Amino acid sequence: MSATDQSGTDGVVRYAEEGGVATITLARPQARNALNAALVAELDAALTRAENSPSVAAIVLTGADPAFCAGLDIKEFNELGRPPAGASDVILRVAALAKPTIGAVNGAVMTGGLELALGLDVLIASERAQFADTHASVGILPGGGMTARLPRAVGQRLAMEMSFTGRVLDAQDALRHGLVTRVVAHEELMTTAQAIGAKIAERDANVVRELKKLYRYSLDTDRADALEHEVAEREARRARGGQLVPRADAVRRPRTPAEGAP
After folding, report:
1. Do 72 and 111 contact (CB within 8 A), yes or no?
2. b/e map of 27-46 (b: 16 or more CB within 10 Å)?
3. What's the pLDDT score for residue 29?
4. What is the pLDDT of residue 9?
5. Cα separation, 8 vs 16, whole angstroms
6. N or C: which terminus of the chain has fewer CB atoms within 10 Å of its end residue's CB?
7. Three-class DSSP labels, the chain
8. How far is CA 92 from CA 97, 118, 155, 211, 255, in A?
9. How far apart are CA 1 and CA 20, in angstroms?
10. Phi and psi of 142, rounded to 5°?
11. What is the reported pLDDT for 244?
């Protein structure tokens, strides 16, 4: 399938589909992709388009260089006396998407932008990526999940240090603390993100969807409850005759010694 750009070139969010992967790009580079009312509305529409597209199995979110997202547009915030309409809602919506999401962090991601990234399922980073929470610096409190999600990603103490002091993590720091799963050369970032999406697209969509539900439930509760829920969900599917079964073409090949064959 060839790439299709369905949002034109005049907006502040670009949308394209190729090979089962939707790529959404925040495109206000002159403002470091800060979240203003226009970007929030277009991002929400792009997420809806990707969720509803039958040809999309995974969603990649990135920013136009040099930044991923600088957070809320402070100029607009000061003019309106409040955050852009819908900003918190779209940030929180990302984690509730049914399809797997991949964040390709190409540069600085700050504050509300970091909250947006934390809602994504998989994060990879360019060597240029930087991560920070500047709520205390700009004088506002978070409302997009920072205090719930950052400590689960990097640990409680590092999360609090980042929020209290504005400490910036570079790409290797983020990898070391588990905030991202890999760091790649900047020019390889989008190819890598889209390859992950394409690999997801090769998998059983029903299984992936159910796995995401289980993981998201697990992230919102403790381990004992998550284990109980996983078993309960399996038994419920069995009871209603909806137990997932291996695909007929999923033939197991012998494992090689390098893969740990006995």
Report:
1. yes
2. bbeebbbbbbeebbbbbbeb
3. 98
4. 57
5. 10
6. C
7. CCCEECCCCCCCEEEEEECCEEEEEECCHHHCCCECHHHHHHHHHHHHHHHHCCCCCEEEEEECCCEEECCECHHHHHHHCCCCCCHHHHHHHHHHCCCCEEEEECCEEECHHHHHHHCCCEEEEECCCEEECCHHHHCCCCCCCHHHHHHHHHCHHHHHHHHHHCCCEEHHHHHHCCCCCEEECHHHHHHHHHHHHHHHHCCCHHHHHHHHHHHHHHHCCCHHHHHHHHHHHHHHHHHCCCCCCCCCCCCCCCCCHHHCCC
8. 10, 10, 20, 20, 41
9. 8
10. -70, 155
11. 62
**What pLDDT is stored for residue 241 in this prediction?**
76
DSSP bridge partners of 156:
none
Tokens 């090979």: give the residue.
19
pTM, whole model, 2 decimals?
0.89
Q: Which two tokens stand for residue 167?
A: 């400490």
Determine the Cα–Cα distance for residues 169 and 175; give it in Å rounded to an integer: 9
| Residues of the chain falling short of pLDDT 50 | 1-2, 251-255, 259, 261-262
Specify the pLDDT at position 252: 47
d(CA 182, CA 174): 9
